[in-house]
Design brief:
Length: about 150
């Protein structure tokens, strides 16, 4: 009797998420979800990342009902201000300048979808950036992909 193994799908085009999931030494494929992310002007950051993970996961799981689908969304919160991915280098500089010398939170929402079952959860990290000057920010931006 041949055993059918459940396909795993990462519902994200993020290279960082792909790298993290590959650490499980498990075969999976990437199916990017083309959904509009919910980014209201004022929202609870946990509610926002969970909603976006749900949207992404449901979009992919709907097309792959027998697969084990993992979706995620991350935001950065500085008080009530939420930061999305920077659109360009200048917005990345502005974001890092705003976070410089301050505590902020990085919140990731994750959705796991399998055979009409959905499990949503989140993780919150408290982060402190030391004071960054413009030269440090520019050097950092030359070394990393801040758009992911």
């Amino acid at each position: 009797m041949m055993r059918h193994e459940t396909e795993w799908i990462l519902a994200s085009a993020s290279p960082r998420r792909r790298e993290l999931l590959s650490r499980l030494n498990r075969h999976f494929r990437v199916v990017s979800a083309s959904v509009e992310e919910w980014e209201p002007e004022r929202a609870d950051p946990v509610e926002q990342v969970l909603e976006n993970a749900r949207r992404k996961g449901e979009a992919v799981a709907g097309s792959h009902p027998e697969a084990f689908v993992i979706a995620a969304d991350t935001t950065v919160a500085l008080g009530e201000r939420l930061f999305s991915k920077p659109a360009d280098r200048e917005s990345a500089v502005s974001m890092l300048e705003a976070l410089s010398g301050r505590d902020h939170q990085v919140i990731t929402g994750v959705g796991v979808f399998y055979q009409k079952n959905i499990h949503l959860f989140h993780d919150l990290s408290q982060v402190f950036f030391r004071k960054l000057d413009r030269e440090m920010i520019e050097t950092y931006l030359d070394c990393v992909n801040v758009y992911d």
